[in-house]
Design a protein that fits this description.
- This protein is mainly α.
- The chain has one domain.
- The protein contains 17 helices and no strands.
- The chain has helices spanning 7-27, 46-53, 56-72, 77-98, 101-110, 118-125, 142-160, 164-179, 181-185, 188-198, 213-230, 233-264, 270-296, 302-329, 336-357, 363-368, 389-396.
- Helix 5 (101-110) runs parallel beside helix 14 and helix 10 (188-198) packs antiparallel against helix 11.
- It is globular and about 65 Å long.
- The chain starts with 6 loop residues before the first helix and ends with a helix.
Length: 397
Amino acid sequence: MHQKRLYGLDWLRVFAFGILILYHTGMVFVGWQFHLMNPETLDSLKIPMTFFHHWRLALLFVISGAGTWFALRGRTTGVFCRDRLKRLLLPLVFTMFWIVPPQIYVERLAQGHTYTSYWAFQRTVFDMVPYPEGSFSWHHLWFVAYLLCYTLLLLPLMVWFRGPRGAETLIRVRTLLGRHSWLLFSLGFVNMALNLALRPFWPETTHALIDDWATFARYGFLFFAGYLVLGDPKLAARLKDTCFKATGAALAIYVLGSSLWPFVENQPWSQVFAYAARDNFTWIVILGVTGLALRLLDFSNAWLRYANEAVYPFYILHQTVTLILAYWVIPLDWHPWPKFFVVAVGTFALCGLLYESLIRRFSLLRLLFGMKPLPASPRPEPTPKPETAPLDDMIRS
């Protein structure tokens, strides 16, 4: 049976990437460790950024898991793999060599390094020495690298789910989650368990994969949870029915956890408290906002279709544009708020200009930025011959 497209997820994806662009702009102005930092900070930005930090990327992995369910339908495993490699691996490699290096370049300039030209720096990228010692990095494209790993690692399981025994197992699990809502809502405890088990061995979040297994496992579970939950129409309908309760519960957990943290942070069990609060908040707020999107945004329009196609190139470009703008804006003798707005608006504007004037227009750039090919131009209809054509043919013969 054909499953209706969940337009709410398209809206949510565009929203989440928009928040991500603003978040990375904010990182320049809050004093947290980042590639470039304004000397004067905007402390008022820390409140919304802390709130979104706990679930913005988790939401994108959940949506990506759901997208994988839909992408696998009606395709052979080989076709699906080729598509994922083309849309994930190729942009990742291209970005590491050509889009990320300007970020490292302006960071090095801010640190006092000098180069005879940008191209003198660009040559160091091909030494392939990992950042920060060298100039080779995936920076913000770690999300794509992790997504590619999850897709390939879980592919055998997802293929098994397409077979008779696997499909029966998948139906049973989804039916169980739909019958007992507390099971659906308590999936956040799985991430809590992963953190408690793995964080002692990999305490830092590095986004470098090889030393980031706690974070890798956490986001990997959320990717699979998106595949499991949002690929089922009945569970998606359940999210719509419980969205207000879930959102309220998530906000209550956030407020309560933030209020109690000063009293428990020095206790020996503080990490258990932190993981319980954060991981359950993350999962339940995702259930809430996803349910709200499915309930209130179940429609499409021309703007959504345009934005949904543009969001991936915007994501690839945005941090490079943000840091180049920040490099020029930080030395200015301005209050931090005008600087923030110039960088934020400039990032959206320049990404839009590059996307509209170049990326979406040329087939090679569309390929390198993970977009689908340009639609083929419709062939003109052949001109019908007049009714006397058979007689004319006989005369000409």
